[in-house]
Amino acid sequence: MIHQPPVHFLGKTLTGQPVQKQVRKLKDLDNIFLDQAAFSAADMNRVVYEVFSYLPVDEGTEGGLFFGMTHLYPGTVGQEFYMTKGHFHTIENRAEYYWCVEGEGMLLMMDKHRNTWAEQMQPGSLHYIDGYTAHRVANTGGGILSFGACWPSDAGHDYATIVKNGFSRRLLSVEGKPALV
Ligand code: 6PG
Ligand code: NI
């Protein structure tokens, strides 16, 4: 049987395989944003992003690949742009590709020594995320930011390290422009 990945997000693959939909609301992003007062004042049911994932093999399978399309909505919490939770992979050496199909954003990456840097995302931009590297995306534009992702099916997600220690630099909106501080 031939598996065809979703081209954009169709809700299912062309051969009819279901795509998993995950919705992340503000309430799922506790301890992610700097400005706790602004966070507490916001609507916790506000959808920040949705991820449509095609998982053709079982999670944890060695040698397989997963495909995901993330739609990150525009917005801010205090001075910070809406962003993904961010994670290292549980199997730390597992790498990943991101590529932007729509919108404007920044991909933040942080290595194990807590060095943080960013790559600008724009339609067509391709981003290689090496192993041992935490990754998070912020929407710096006025519209939706959509990006595809491809990662190994045994990579897993370590969110706890980021919830606890964060990234060493934050992307703030300074006079409407993104600044990594
Ligand atoms: C992954 C990918 C990607 C990511 C989403 C949402 O490893 O699965 O990096 O699909 O999960 O963009 O970001 P968070 O997983 O950090 O919430
Ligand atoms: Ni990942």
From TrEMBL:
<dbReference type="GO" id="GO:0006094">
    <property type="term" value="P:gluconeogenesis"/>
</dbReference>
<dbReference type="GO" id="GO:0006096">
    <property type="term" value="P:glycolytic process"/>
</dbReference>
<dbReference type="InterPro" id="IPR014710">
    <property type="entry name" value="RmlC-like_jellyroll"/>
</dbReference>
<comment type="similarity">
    <text>Belongs to the archaeal-type GPI family.</text>
</comment>
<feature type="domain" description="Glucose-6-phosphate isomerase prokaryote">
    <location>
        <begin position="23"/>
        <end position="176"/>
    </location>
</feature>
<keyword id="KW-0324">Glycolysis</keyword>
<dbReference type="Pfam" id="PF06560">
    <property type="entry name" value="GPI"/>
</dbReference>
<comment type="pathway">
    <text>Carbohydrate degradation; glycolysis; D-glyceraldehyde 3-phosphate and glycerone phosphate from D-glucose: step 2/4.</text>
</comment>
<dbReference type="InterPro" id="IPR010551">
    <property type="entry name" value="G6P_isomerase_prok"/>
</dbReference>
<protein>
    <recommendedName>
        <fullName>glucose-6-phosphate isomerase</fullName>
        <ecNumber>5.3.1.9</ecNumber>
    </recommendedName>
</protein>
<keyword id="KW-0312">Gluconeogenesis</keyword>
<dbReference type="GO" id="GO:0005737">
    <property type="term" value="C:cytoplasm"/>
</dbReference>
<dbReference type="InterPro" id="IPR011051">
    <property type="entry name" value="RmlC_Cupin_sf"/>
</dbReference>
<dbReference type="GO" id="GO:0004347">
    <property type="term" value="F:glucose-6-phosphate isomerase activity"/>
</dbReference>
<keyword id="KW-0413">Isomerase</keyword>
